[in-house]
Design a protein that fits this description.
Layout lengths: L2 H8 L1 H11 L3 H14 L4 H13 L3 H13 L5 H13 L3 H14 L3 H13 L3 H14 L4 H13 L3 H14 L4 H8 L8 H13 L3 H17 L3 H19 L4 H13 L2 H5 L10 E6 L6 H8 L5 E3 L5 H13 L7 H7 L2 H16 L8 E4 L8 H7 L4 E6 L2 H9 L13 H21 L4 E5 H6 L1 H11 L46 H7 L7
Parallel strand pairs: 1-3, 1-4, 2-3, 4-5
Helix pairs in contact: 1-2, 2-3, 2-4, 3-4, 4-5, 5-6, 6-7, 7-8, 8-9, 9-10, 10-11, 11-12, 12-14, 13-14, 14-15, 16-20, 16-24, 23-24, 24-27
């Protein structure tokens, strides 16, 4: 007899709540569960159901609270443990999530759980362990396309491009309609797609009905046509893939614009100078802040070749810690991000900063004094970072607007970067980014060091010497051999940073100029800055 069956027999009201939750009627389900718990405040299955509802509606902090209470009261169902593991993963509390997942695997050990554990290990920087699990999963399940895709992506990130190509080809042979397999292949910075591949993808596009296949098929076709110089066909498919994603997401660019405006009003010179300046511990984090596709991977690879700097990739912790803080701060009344930062106490700031540093240490492999977190989207979190980490340093690497924005538009991003789905939206995002950088330069000169991507490619030593001086370091000749640095690179630029400097990223927008007027209108004068 399952836990739900037991609940059905003993607690009919709870049974109805479960049915409503499974149908997606979370509001009515929550009302029934709360009525159930009013009579039995510590009944563990009711607490668990409230946790499940909270998790499904995105209230992760509340979900964790109710599920942990249910766990302490004796409810230890696999669904509860799986949900807790997923919540910890979404909160980027990777060590705790991995512990829960390992516990579940010992009891059940199914493919989904092993895939989750491999994902967690990889995000914790334990890439070899993750790759070993992924290979074992592929060996045991040779017809599992999701397993093949994850394995192919990991091989590519580790530098085994031939292995990645072979793995993606295996997935395509199993189902030529599977769009993500084609995009995995197309995303490799080589001309690997053949004329026959184009015919097969076009055939797949005529029969595909799932947007999860249609969108990446469009992006893969776009890349194939780009490589052949057929820019009209390429733009058509880029535009179509983005249009479908944009319609499904409903992104509102005004929210970011409004937040930047609020930061401008709040964070004046007095506000910033009043923040604590004493460093929190001995770790020195450096944040590369910019839009995606701006050269952050190249800059990190070059700086990470310095013997005093450790590159740790794109850590997800600042956005996760900020989300949790906003959820807690908004329990009485909804607060914007700037409002929550303004209301933050020094004790809260210290605890949040310590939380970030503790999580970041999971990724440290050396005792070098400086480490780099290159999550590009942190440009919008600079005020939060400065508040919780007084010793933080910021380096803005800026790619010319037209190149940067078109490169975003032509990349198959997830909803996490929904501004890339429309030319007008990615243009507005770039405008907001530059606006915020200029504001901080005005009210806190020197807080952010700026690097031109074009100058970095043309004259790296002259460009990087001031950046190193900003970090208190001297030039080191090892930087010249940055492309020989052996590490896992999980970005679309993973092949590029393993090659010597080149101009491949320059003027990528020009063949598409006739279709980019909507972008130029939004960018205004920024469109002309090279």
């Amino acid at each position: 007899m399952t836990a739900n069956t037991v609940s059905t027999a003993i607690y009919p009201r709870l049974s109805e709540a479960i049915r409503l939750r499974e149908q997606g009627d979370h509001h009515r389900a929550a009302q029934l569960v709360m009525a159930h718990l009013r009579d039995r405040p510590d009944e563990p299955r009711g607490l668990a159901q409230l946790g499940f509802i909270a998790a499904q509606t995105g209230a992760l902090g509340q979900a964790e609270h109710f599920l942990r209470r249910a766990l302490s009261m004796g409810e230890k169902s696999p669904e509860l443990l799986r949900t807790l593991a997923t919540i910890y993963s979404q909160q980027e509390r990777l060590h705790v999530a991995e512990s829960f997942t390992s516990r579940l695997i010992a009891e059940e050990g199914d493919l989904e759980l092993r895939a989750l554990r491999a994902n967690l290990l990889d995000r914790m920087g334990r890439h070899e362990e993750a790759l070993a699990i992924q290979k074992q999963m592929v060996d045991e399940n040779p017809n599992s396309i999701p397993a093949l895709l994850v394995y192919g992506y990991s091989l590519r990130a580790a530098g085994d491009v031939e292995g990645a190509i072979s793995t993606y080809r295996r997935a395509i042979a199993l189902d030529y309609e599977y769009g993500e397999a084609w995009w995995g292949l197309a995303g490799i910075k080589r001309k690997v797609l053949t004329d026959e591949d184009i015919v097969v993808m076009q055939r797949a596009l005529t029969i595909a009905i799932d947007e999860r296949n249609i969108v990446p098929l469009n992006f893969a076709l776009a890349r194939a046509f780009h490589d052949r110089g057929d820019f009209a066909s390429a733009f058509h498919h880029y535009n179509e893939g983005n249009r479908i994603r944009a319609e499904a997401i409903g992104y509102d660019a005004r929210a970011l614009t409004d937040e930047v405006a609020e930061v401008e009003r709040l964070a004046d010179a007095d506000f910033l100078s009043a923040m604590p300046s004493a460093p929190l511990g001995s770790d020195q984090p450096v944040f590369i802040v910019c839009l995606p596709r701006s050269g952050s991977t190249l800059l990190e690879q070059m700086l990470g070749s310095h013997p005093s700097i450790e590159p740790v990739g794109e850590l997800p912790y600042i956005p996760a810690i900020l989300r949790s803080f906003i959820e807690i701060s908004s329990r009485k009344a909804k607060l914007s991000v700037p409002q929550a930062i303004a209301a933050m106490t020094d004790q809260q700031a210290s605890l949040l900063g310590q939380d970030y540093l503790a999580r970041a240490r999971l990724h440290r492999k050396t005792d070098r004094p400086i480490f780099i977190d290159k999550l590009p989207q942190n440009w919008s979190n600079i005020l939060f970072i400065r508040r919780i980490l007084p010793q933080a340093r910021f380096i803005d690497v800026r790619r010319p607007a037209m190149d940067c924005c078109f490169s975003n538009f032509s990349q198959s991003f997830t909803a996490a970067h929904a501004s890339s789905f429309a030319l007008e939206d990615i243009g507005q995002c770039y405008v907001d980014y530059v606006r915020l950088m200029r504001h901080f330069d005005t009210v806190a000169p020197g807080m952010i060091h700026h690097v031109s991507y074009s100058n970095l490619v043309e004259d790296p030593e002259t460009t990087l010497r001031p950046a190193l001086e900003y970090l208190g370091l001297d030039w080191d000749d090892s930087i010249r051999s940055f492309h020989k640095l052996d590490r896992v690179v999980r970005t679309p630029s993973s092949e590029q940073v393993r090659r010597p400097l080149n101009r491949d990223g320059m003027d990528v927008w020009r063949p598409y100029a006739q279709w980019l007027d909507p972008l130029k209108r939004v960018l205004g004068d920024l469109a002309d800055i090279c």
